[in-house]
Amino acid sequence: MFNLKEDKKIYVVTNRHLIDKSSNLCEVIEKCAFKGADGVILREKDLENEALKHLGEKIKIITDKYNIPLIINGNIKVALDINAYGFHTGFENFKNMKGNETICEKIAVGVSVHKVEEAVEAEKLGANYLLAGHIFETDCKLGLKGRGMGFLEKYVKVLLYQL
């Protein structure tokens, strides 16, 4: 099995539209968990509440079986309804959420940030973890060039001194 250095982790971020037609998302999640994924972020932005909740419940059975966290992207209601480990959102949404501190006591909250200042503010508002993006070019951000590893290295160094 592939071993990561130090305390690094691999989280699977879903997009069911990218899966080969011969598989389904739950089968892929099961394989990833079996191979050692450290967690799953369910990121299916096009699903309505009920469909996301239904899919989340099915995936939670798998993540619970492997004792890894399930994080719901962009939908705090579904995250709370299915008793997910966490909820992930963008910085502006997190900043404008009422009762951040109370929510962060009930469920782990992750925030996507694109500037060091956003990271510092998100941490002060109670975020449990941060995702700095985007480092590489991706179909999720068509037309936007990735910031590269140099950005990430600088970002981490600045954050270590500011937090």
Automatic annotation (TrEMBL):
- What InterPro entries does UniProt report for this protein, alphabetically? Aldolase_TIM, ThiamineP_synth_sf, ThiamineP_synth_TenI
Per the record, the domain of life is: Bacteria
Q: Which Pfam families match?
A: TMP-TENI
- Assigned keywords, A-Z: Thiamine biosynthesis
Task: Return one GO MF term.
Answer: thiamine-phosphate diphosphorylase activity
* GO terms (BP aspect): thiamine biosynthetic process
GO terms for CC? Answer: cytoplasm
Residue stretches making up the Thiamine phosphate synthase/TenI domain = 10-157
Q: In which pathway does it act?
A: Cofactor biosynthesis; thiamine diphosphate biosynthesis
Coiled coil location: none
In Swiss-Prot or TrEMBL terms, this protein is called Thiamine monophosphate synthase
**Source species, please?**
Clostridium carboxidivorans P7
Q: What is the lineage of its organism?
A: Bacteria, Bacillati, Bacillota, Clostridia, Eubacteriales
